[in-house]
Every structure is written in structure tokens, then in C-alpha cells.
């Protein structure tokens, strides 16, 4: 039985049933349907913390999926896994790939900013003020873009930008 069919959560079960119906009736190619199945399996594995399995499914989905918009979300989810594993350089690579295909993905912009902010804090703790400032400025840049796309989100980032005086002119 596929992982996505094992979910005990009512909402997950409902989504799975609806996704199966949509998948059957939409006029899509066999490859696109397979890509979606791998993507869905990847999301289920990721939700259960099975990151290696999720990555396998996402990479398989990428090998089949041709639609740039759909590929952007696969790249984004791969970035989430690398972020969770503390592999920030790889995570940044996948978030940027997602943005190349879908520049209006505020959550990818936010996650890039969070990584840069984290690196800024780390540099600050090591008294490396130059790197710290560079990382904080990069974080602000990406948060401003995310906030532009989703003005009602990222309230903490908006406050941080104001408090640290990293507005538009910086």
C-alpha cells in the first residue's frame, strides 16, 4: 500500500481520495501522473520525517515532471528537507532553483532569508562582524521580497527589518 494511502488523518485521507480522482480525470500524460504520484509520496514521507525516502520520491518526480511551476514546488520541498537536516548550502541551492522557475514563491524567499539570518547570528557569536552584517543584509533583501509578495505574512521579519533599520534603502 502506498504511503499516502496509509494516512490516519481525515483531512489527509480526503486529500488523497480527491487527488486520486483528479488524477484519473485530468487529461495529463502518463509521466505527469507518475510525477504527481512520486511528489505525493514524497510529501507523505516528508511529513513522517522519512527524509531519505522523501528525497528519493522528489528526485523521481523531477525526472518525470516537465511543468516549471510544478517543478518549482518539488525543488522547494527538497530545500525544506536540506534545511531540516542543517545542510544550508544545499537548501539554498534548491530554493534558488525553485525561484528560477517560480519567482513568486514567497516561502522560498522567506526560507532563504531565515538561513542567511541564522548564518548572521552564527557569525555574530564568533565576533565576525563583517560576515554577520553581510548575512543580515542578505536576509533583509530576501525578506523584503517575500513581504512584497505576501504583505500579510512574515510579521516577525517585518518587525526585524524595522528594528534593525534594514528598510528599502539598505
UniProtKB/TrEMBL annotation:
Membrane topology (UniProt): Peripheral membrane protein
Task: Give the GO terms filed under biological process for this record.
Answer: photosynthesis
Give the GO cellular component terms, alphabetically. Answer: chloroplast thylakoid membrane
Q: Which InterPro entries match?
A: PSI_Ycf3_assembly (IPR022818), TPR-like_helical_dom_sf (IPR011990), TPR_rpt (IPR019734), Ycf3/AcsC/BcsC/TPR_MFPF (IPR051685)
- Which Pfam families does this UniProt record tie to the protein? TPR_1 (PF00515), TPR_8 (PF13181)
Going by the entry's taxonomy, the superkingdom of the source organism is recorded as: Eukaryota
Going by the UniProt record, its keywords in alphabetical order are: Chloroplast, Membrane, Photosynthesis, Plastid, Repeat, Thylakoid, TPR repeat
Which windows of the sequence hold TPR repeats? 35-68, 35-68, 72-105, 72-105, 120-153
Task: Please state where this protein is localized.
Answer: Membrane; Plastid, Chloroplast thylakoid membrane
> Is Plastid one of the keywords?
yes
Protein task: Seems to be required for the assembly of the photosystem I complex.
The family classification in the record reads: Belongs to the Ycf3 family.
Q: What is the protein's name according to its record?
A: Photosystem I assembly protein Ycf3
Record lineage:
Eukaryota, Rhodophyta, Florideophyceae, Nemaliophycidae, Thoreales
Amino acid at each position: 500500500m502506498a504511503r499516502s494511502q496509509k494516512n490516519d488523518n481525515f483531512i489527509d485521507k480526503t486529500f488523497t481520495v480527491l487527488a486520486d480522482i483528479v488524477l484519473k480525470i485530468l487529461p495529463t500524460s502518463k509521466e505527469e501522473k507518475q510525477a504527481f504520484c512520486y511528489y505525493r509520496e514524497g510529501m507523505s514521507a516528508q511529513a513522517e520525517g522519512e527524509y531519505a525516502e522523501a528525497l528519493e520520491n522528489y528526485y523521481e518526480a523531477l525526472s518525470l515532471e516537465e511543468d516549471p511551476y510544478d517543478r518549482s514546488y518539488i525543488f522547494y520541498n527538497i530545500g525544506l528537507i536540506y534545511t531540516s537536516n542543517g545542510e544550508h548550502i544545499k537548501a539554498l541551492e534548491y530554493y534558488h532553483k525553485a525561484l528560477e522557475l517560480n519567482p513568486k514563491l514567497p516561502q522560498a524567499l522567506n526560507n532563504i532569508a531565515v538561513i542567511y539570518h541564522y548564518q548572521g547570528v552564527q557569525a555574530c557569536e564568533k565576533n565576525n562582524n563583517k560576515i554577520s552584517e553581510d548575512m543580515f543584509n542578505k536576509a533583509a533583501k530576501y525578506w523584503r521580497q517575500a513581504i512584497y509578495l505576501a504583505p500579510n505574512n512574515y510579521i516577525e521579519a517585518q518587525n526585524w527589518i524595522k528594528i534593525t533599520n534594514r528598510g528599502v534603502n539598505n
